[in-house]
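Narrative of activities, Objective 1.

The group set out to show that a structural description can be obtained from nothing but a protein's sequence at a throughput compatible with the screening campaign. Below is one input-output pair from the validation batch, recorded exactly as produced.
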Amino acid sequence: MKIHKRYISAFVALLLSVPAFAQVPAPAAKQSKPMLLTGATLHVGNGTVVENAAVGFDNGKITYAGPVSGANRNGHEVIDVAGQHIYPGLIQPNTQLGLEEISSVRATLDMREVGQLNPNVRAVVAYNTDSDVIPTIRANGVLLSQVTPVGGTVSGSSSIVQLDAWNWEDAVLKADEGIHLNWPNMLINTGGAPNPRLANFAQQREQAISDLAQLLRDASVYKSAKNEKENLKLSSMAGLFDGSKRLYIHANYGKEIIESVNFVKQHGIKDNIVIVGAGDAVAVADFLKANNIAVIYSGVHALPSRSDEDVDMPYKTPYLLQQAGIPFALDYDLSLHGIRNLPFIAGTAVAHGLDKEQALASITLNTAKILGIDKQVGSVEVGKDATLVVSGGDLLDMRTNNVTHAFIQGRKLDLNDKQKYLYQKFDGKYQAEAPKVEGAKAQK
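Output recorded for this entry:
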């Protein structure tokens, strides 16, 4: 028994020795009094820019957004942010944030279910609000995300969460808003000798599409029938047929995009279809526009998919989608920890033709519209949630992005995170150990 007590005492001492600010910050308290941000340049998110602006909010809702001259300061806590920029909180779609912590450690991964057809799987119930990754994402202005399952043909349902909460129930902004379909890849013949494995691939693909067709038929019949016992798989799909849920089709190849959309329309899903990934979206722009299909484009920071494409094709695709009139949002999908770079892929699109305010909309208001949450977030407008970011410089430019304040529904966030703590720790160590050069001028 003494040995056990000794181990317990040592463990407790170890926990107490870790600095509190190295942990995930506690969720912010509910807004207790009206607040007013003054003097900044306001980027509304819908293309409007207001110089020397003010933004007021109370009880988590925006009460004023416009010129400083029209703001009522009475009873407000005033925060002077002169010379800075106010933006809507950025939104990251299609992510496993909170479902994955360390990719090489299986116990920290909870983003997929076994089997191929899992429409009833709810990703949000596995969402971990204590993830060390989340604060590092908020530090660059990303305040909302779409928590999305992966794997199989039908992965399950995604939900929109706010990145500051005690638990997943508190985090939810919109639960189970859409189902994710991974369209089976087409077999692309590249020539060469016949390969038996390719024949198996084709058979597996046909079987996957056949199984999907059966699932959609069953779900359609189930929706219109009176059922004494609930079938979770089928009932979870009911919203796809009346448009109350979105169908996110993950596909990149142009023919796959066309095939998948035609397929689901044949099976009764007519509205709220979104293509995720959408590498060939520009090539099939006329089809997407004719069928009123929105796009979540995932490949800005990538190489071209074909050797005969322009080397900067991924960079200029957002501009080309804008020119074609395709509703689109941007998604950073290269790595979970890299989601903090979401504003910078929008900045890359600006450098390749996209207007700066359009680029901002592609990670704020456009995303909110595609996800069906634009009445609540996505722009800094009266009546919407006070979910916004203040940056000392251009939020889309990695050289000047410097988030100084962030609010989710009016709650002021603690912007500390593990990376900042480690930077401060080792910066102090190496600054203290740096050799002093006689006659050298101090560096600011």
